[in-house]
Amino acid sequence: MAAPPANRPTPGYVRVRIETSAGPIVIAADVKRAPKTSANFLAYVDDGRLDGTSFYRSARRRTDPKFGFVQGGISTDRRRSLPPINHEPTNMTGIRHLDGVISMARGGDPGSAMGNFFIMIGPVPGLDAQPGRPGYAAFGHVVAGMDVVKRILAMRTGGGVGPMKGQMLQPPVRLISARRLDGKPRPTTTIKPWLLNIPGRK
Prior knowledge:
Elements: E1 13-20, E2 23-30, H1 35-47, E3 53-61, E4 64-73, H2 90-93, E5 101-104, E6 116-121, E7 137-144, H3 146-153, E8 157-158, E9 168-180
Antiparallel strand pairs: 1-2, 1-9, 2-7, 3-4, 3-9, 4-6, 5-6, 5-7, 8-9
């Protein structure tokens, strides 16, 4: 994997500042190597679909709880969702799940990622593509605020079911806003029902 970009304008990357109740995080989306996944994340950012959501999961490594990943985004609020995107596996992009890498969460099938993402604290190679396993679509790297990510990882958890049992942040960390730092926003023309108070599943 190439060295992560610095926290400054860098060709091939678009930085996004995520304001949380635990502090700011800046990520750089790799629009060159993971164009579809980065474009999807940036659509959620530019539409304001991540504003007012949360980081809701902390998955700590059992053998060393200083490592693992934190997950955030729209959770199950379908009012904020855009159509799922085609899967860009790590063996296609070359972006592996190393410390500070951001990746898209998805359902059981590749090509089901929408508006949830997670950030690695330490390497998580089990999320990379393997023979017979598609893995997850990594698409960028934290360039500022890893101290915030680590603080979220260490917060109190409980609840949850299945693979998330015991991993739900209590309380969740508020994701206040997400904004591009590079280039012009490109919001979609898709309806935004959460802004119109249209009921929907949360």
